[in-house]
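hey so i finally got around to running the thing on that chain from the lab meeting. sorry it took forever, my laptop kept dying and i had to restart like 3 times. anyway pasting the input first so we r on the same page abt which one it is
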Amino acid sequence: KMDDDDDIPQLSSHTLAALQEFYLEQQQREGMKTSQGFNQYSIGSIEEDWQLSQFWYSDETASCLAKEAVLAAGKGGRIACVSAPSVYQKLKEQDGEGFSVCILEYDRRFSVYGEEFIFYDYNHPLDLPENVLPHSFDIVIADPPYLSEECLQKTAETIKYLTKGKILLCTGAVMEEQAAKHLDVKMCKFIPKHSRNLANEFRCYVNYASGLD
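ok and heres what got predicted. didnt touch it at all, straight out
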């Protein structure tokens, strides 16, 4: 009934615009689904939000990192993607063959992935649901949203809480010393690429013998 509108809390114009955009994108995607056999996990099903400092990896890089994660996690392994949704989406394309994966992400659009989505704000590194047990992931892939020591340090708390040991960190080359300090990880030869070129040189860092060298 139309006269019930009074009970509805008014949304800010910003939220409304975001919602409208979201619905519009969804409608476009519905159209895509029918026209091209849609894959809900493919990159592009959720667009980058630069205000959240999101930059997707190139397809090749996302595939390479996903493959590395599966190998590192081992059979039946558990993988956590912290602020690294493009790797998560690549892992989902592999249809969970012998591994499981969670995504810890600030962007609630990823809640479409259901129980695998864990809302994550690096400012509260250990504010995680009770069912996320310490050291319950075979490997954690993380890409802190900002190139600052504070962001890395806080994300590092989360990574150390989640991982049984293995860490794959993607961040700027300028963060090499801080990455070693906070996570004891070393730079690999592999150079991650983004779908749009970033001004900052990006690198991968690991604390185990990876296939990225």
